[in-house]
Specification:
This protein has 7 helices and 2 strands. The protein is mainly alpha-helical. A two-stranded antiparallel ribbon has the order 1-2.
Length: 187
């Protein structure tokens, strides 16, 4: 299965996303971290639609994009989560898209369009790794704990996140650690 059994075991142990209370912090979304991630045979930088495009054209393009990707997302959530009773780990991208009646071209065009006014990054990932956190193999072997590496393409958001994270009181951090430990014990 894997050319590197040690790395494979570390990924299975630390990098598989399990939905938790933290995922569902916001009532309007299933997972605020965006799992399961879209599968793709290459890394894609999704661009926002041009500012000078008419609202009507933007709406039409985004509607088509969202319809395509929501069907794929439903399939990912139902059949590509390792804990799902209907888990189908051996399907190829083409097989999945054929089942959904979506052409490969339509899918990749949808992935290339950002759903917001910011860029999005879709890393190369096979269908059986839609619930794997982003990681660096060398660092994972040394760290031997969960990591989630992400591309920073919006410096304002990155600085805001770091400031909020570092300004948390110790009580908040302690509460978060206790909650995480409790979730680990119950899973």
């Amino acid at each position: 299965k894997s050319e590197d059994p040690e790395l494979h075991d570390l990924v299975k142990t630390f990098q598989i996303h399990q939905h938790s209370r933290s995922c569902r912090k916001y009532k309007n979304m299933d997972c605020r971290y965006g799992f399961g991630k879209y599968f793709t045979d290459r890394t894609i930088i999704a661009s926002p639609l041009p500012c000078d495009m008419s609202t009507e054209n933007k709406s039409e393009i985004l509607s088509k994009r969202n319809a395509c990707l929501s069907r794929v997302k439903e399939f990912i959530d139902e059949y590509l989560h390792p804990k799902s009773p209907g888990y189908l780990p051996d399907l190829t991208i083409k097989q999945i898209l054929d089942r959904l009646g979506i052409s490969v071209l339509e899918y990749y065009e949808a992935l290339a369009i950002s759903g917001s006014d910011d860029f999005e990054v879709h890393l190369k990932r096979s269908p059986n790794s839609c619930f794997v956190n982003n990681y660096n193999p060398t660092i994972l072997k040394a760290w031997q704990a969960n990591m989630d590496l992400q591309v920073v393409h919006n410096y304002y958001k990155a600085v805001s996140y770091m400031c909020a994270y570092f300004s948390k009181s110790e009580t908040q951090s302690s509460d978060a650690i206790r909650l995480a430990a409790k979730e680990v014990r119950t899973s």
